[in-house]
Amino acid sequence: MANVSVAAEWQLLYNRYYRKPELYPLRWKNIDLSRNKVACAPFGGPIAVIRDDSKIVQLYSESALRKLRIFTSSGVLISDTVWKNPGGRLIGMSWTEDQTLICIVQDGTVYRYNIHAELIEPNVTLGKECFEQNVVECVFWGNGVVCLTEGGLLFCIPDFKVMRPCQLAETGAEDLPNCMAVIEPKYTVSGNVEVLVGIGDRILIVDEDGVQTVEGEVVQGLVQKMVVSWDGKFLAIFTHDGRILVTDINFKGVLLEYNCESALPPEQLAWCGLDSVLLYWDDTPLLMVGPRGDPVHYFYDEPLLLIPECDGVRILSNTSLEFLQRVPDSTVSIFKIGSTSPAALLYDALDHFDRRSAKADENLRLIQKSLPEAVEACIDAAGHEFDVSRQRTLLRAASYGQAFCSNFQRDRIQEMCKTLRVLNAVRDPEIGIPLSINQYKLLTPSVLIARLVNAHCHLLALRISEYVGMNQEVVIMHWACSKITASLAIPDAALLEILLDKLKLCRGISYAAVAAHADKNGRRKLAAMLVEHEPRSSKQVPLLLSIGEEDTALMKATESGDTDLVYLVLFHIWQKKQPLEFFGMIQARPLPRDLFISYARCYKHEFLKDFFLSTGQLQEVAFLLWKESWELGKNPMASKGSPLHGPRIKLIDKAQNLFAETKEHTFESKAAEEHAKLLRIQHELEVSTKQAIFVDSSISDTIRTCIVLGNHRAAMKVKTEFKVSEKRWYWLKVFALATTRDWEALEKFSKEKRPPIGYRPFVEACVDADEKGEALKYIPKLADLRERAEAYARIGMAKEAADAASQAKDGELLGRLKLTFQQNAAASSLFDSLRDRLSFQGV
Fold first, then answer.
1. Fewer CB near the last or first residue (10 Å), C or N of the chain?
2. Which chain positions lie within coiled-coil regions (predicted)?
3. Local structure of 47: helix, strand or coil
4. What pLDDT is attached to residue 825?
5. Do 336 and 327 meet the contact criterion of CB atoms below 8 Å apart?
6. How does pLDDT run across 676-718, given as a tens digit for each residue?
7. Residue 210: other Cβ atoms inside 10 A
């Protein structure tokens, strides 16, 4: 009998059954759909209602001001607001995928509302042409809209998330279209919006790039209504002679044709899944047409609104909400009258088992081989049921059959129970989201939770997210922010305790984000208390800065050891505070202080000098000045003008004065003084010689250059000024004179007095200049016989080298000299004989 009562509610359309269960008796009062514009969100979403200003209606006990009211699908009022928006008559209204209500008025202005009837700024306009010509029709799809103006122009917003209007190609027709339908971008080859426009006896395909005319004889005559199927593959068309046609989206063949009783276009044309089409006229039954067979009529005595879903149509009336859908195959196999399918026998076996009848075992034996399929059918049928008691019975039948089925997936029933508990919870009239199982799978649990959160159903969202094993942070975060917004009268300390009690439920939750919301709502003290509980410095520190807690932010950043965070705080304080206050904050903290110094050394010398002066570190200022002088020297423009009055000398003088004020830096003070003195002398030399070759050279190079240029007096002056030693002076002068090949002056210099460096440098200078004759003047004066022997060898005088080495009685030296002259046989023989003589003598 149960099977009969279930199947009795079905309607047969050719070979397919349809059912129309009531989801809710609506709780609203005094709502007449015929007097209002209504927008229903898909996937069991909210319903927006506003009085239709294009109709003359009688006002009862209501205000003349129009109100935008938002209800759940069960008719529970969520929110309302007075409609005060300018721009003319409201032309179109629809919900986006993220449940934002889009309202388009005559002048092309787009107003957006959230589910709580709060206006979302800023408003968007479709453009100047829309403002001048007025919008007359809107066609919405999931996340976009196409608008038609009085001048026949088409404007489109392809994505409400971006809100960037664009104009489509002009049709060139003089008359306005009879009807329009939109193919969504995800179903087109080009990836752009395509609009099917019925103009006269033609159908045009319009996009941004151009206009195409549909070819062929599939559609003949005037088209009065069109609608694209949910999957974008089929098109339902109502023609001027009262025919309903279904073609594929490419117009390659007619899949359905039915002659309606009326040639007047229906007020609403909608797909019921992908198997049938619904047509609705006022004061006539709702007509459902399928591919074959007689149509089905549904009788109503009140106005209706059809809300297409992926697996059916929700039917909204003044008093109830119903769901018309094709009966799932699993449900048909169980409840069809006279069904003997394995699933029906399993369902019947459970009934016999409950009545303690032996026929239960007989039924199980009959379907033993098909038992897994029967169990699966019962589970699937339970998922498609809206009636909770029927869900329970079907799951019990599946569980009963599973007990005798060894190779069935054991957690299948558990998964379906989980899904149904979630669906039943959101279907509750107080929540009012009548999702089917197919819609739930398409929507996904995460989106469902987001919608519950958006509707402020935080407790249910939290329980569902916990139940299905999803992260609860999003729910708790949204609850905390909503609580702060709604709790203006609660003191900060009490509200903090309430928030912490819930926030601690989710490990790793961002206290900083909640604190930021508190600060945005003007509760800075609460924000400061909340951010103290944030464990992640990377989120804590920026918020502390935004609420003016710079000192705490610097302390937290320092404790974290993250140099990037410390730099973030330093730059923030640097911009906001006075220099002395900034210096005081970082002076006692080593890490921020050192990081600031490292950065300022590279980019902010002047500011760093102020810091060192404020902290009494004069030597550091002096080092900076000295460094600046060197940097200035690298600038080619710095050599122009006199260094005596130029910036380099001044910088070095300042550095010297600062070094002089500290006892520990006497050396640096003296070095700076001598550096300045050297620069002055070098500049004088460049002025007198008119050659820019002295500045920034060393003392030794300066002396050498003076001698090379023949300016011996200047060289002596540099020697005297900088107390150059005699040995160094002789070395420099010897090689400078050799460089100029002034051999006479070199000989004269060697005879002035006994050189403190000996005569070896004279010999080396001559040899390096390849003047062996000049070298012979000094080799005999070498006191060390070994040096004399090596000097003779360098100029190729083997006999003299051998004699000197023999006098030195150094056998090893003779061996080395032999190697030097190994190409000369006579010389090699001489060295061998001398070494043998020394060996004989026992030396």
1. N
2. none
3. strand
4. 61
5. no
6. 676 777 667 777 777 767 776 777 877 777 777 777 777 787 7
7. 10
Residue written as token pair 């609660």: 490
Three-class HEC string of 605-670: HHHHHHHHHHCCCHHHHHHHHHHHHHHHHHCHHHHCCCCCCCHHHHHHHHHHHHHHCCHHHHHHHH
Q: What number is the average pLDDT over the span 240-249? A: 90
First to last CA, the chain: 137
C-alpha angle 181-184-186 in degrees, rounded to nearest 5: 160
> What distance in Å separates the CA atoms of residue 515 and residue 484, rounded to the nearest whole number?
10
Using the CB atoms, write b or e for 178-196: b if 16+ within 10 Å: bbbbbbebebeeeeebbbb
Nearest CA-CA partner of 666 in 630, 699, 619:
619
Asked if pLDDT for residue 595 goes beyond 80, the answer is no
The C-alpha atoms of residue 261 and residue 545 are separated, in whole angstroms, by 72
Q: If we measure between CA atoms, which residue out of 574, 635, 634, 633 comes closest to residue 608?
A: 574
Could you tell me if 200 and 219 are in contact, meaning their C-beta atoms sit under 8 angstroms apart? no
- Residue pair 325/332 in contact by the 8 Å Cβ criterion: no
Q: What is the 3-state secondary structure (H, E, C) of 419-442?
A: HHHHHHHHHCCCCCCCCCHHHHHH
- Which of 222-231, 768-777, 830-839 shows the lowest per-residue confidence on average (mean pLDDT)? 830-839
Grouping H, G, I as helix, E, B as strand and the rest as coil, residue 471 is: coil
What pLDDT shows up at residue 378? 95
Cβ atoms 130, 147 nearer than 8 A: yes
The pLDDT tens digits of the residues spanning 406-416 come to 777 878 999 99
* Residue closest to 638 by CA, chosen among 695, 593, 590: 695
Q: 735 Cβ partners below 8 Å, 6+ apart?
A: 704, 761, 765
Q: Cβ distance 334 to 3 under 8 Å?
A: yes
Q: Are 153 and 170 in contact (CB under 8 A)?
A: yes
Residue ranges of alpha helices (H) inside 336-488 are 342-354, 359-366, 371-383, 388-402, 412-427, 437-443, 445-454, 458-467, 473-486
Query: Which of 673, 674, 724 has its CA nearest to residue 701?
Result: 724
Q: How far apart are the C-alpha atoms of 472 and 199, rounded to whole Å? A: 53
Per-residue model confidence as pLDDT tens digits over 28-83:
988 999 999 999 999 999 999 999 988 877 777 677 789 999 999 999 999 999 99
pTM, rounded to two decimals: 0.73
Query: Which residue, among 346, 418, 354, 349, has the nearest Cα to 377 in the 3D structure?
Result: 346
| DSSP single-letter state for residue 98 | T
Strand pairing partners for 199? 202
Number of separate helices (H) and strands (E) present in the chain: 34, 30
Length of the chain in residues, anyone?
Answer: 843
Given a contact cutoff of 8 angstroms between Cβ atoms, the answer to whether 271 and 236 are in contact is yes
pLDDT at 617 over 70: no
- Tracing tokens 């002789």 back to the chain, one arrives at 730
| 304 band by pLDDT with thresholds 50, 70 and 90 | very high
Q: Under a CB-based contact definition with an 8 Å cutoff, are residues 378 and 413 in contact? A: no
Residue 198, strand partner residues: 179, 203
Report the SS3 class of residue 444: coil
Of 612 and 368, which is predicted with more confidence? 368
More confident of the two residues 648 and 354: 354
Structure tokens at 735: 């090689």
Pick the residue with more confidence: 3 or 332? 332
The residue behind tokens 């009934």 is 351
Angle, alpha carbons 592-520-518 (nearest 5°)? 85
pLDDT for 817 beyond 70: no
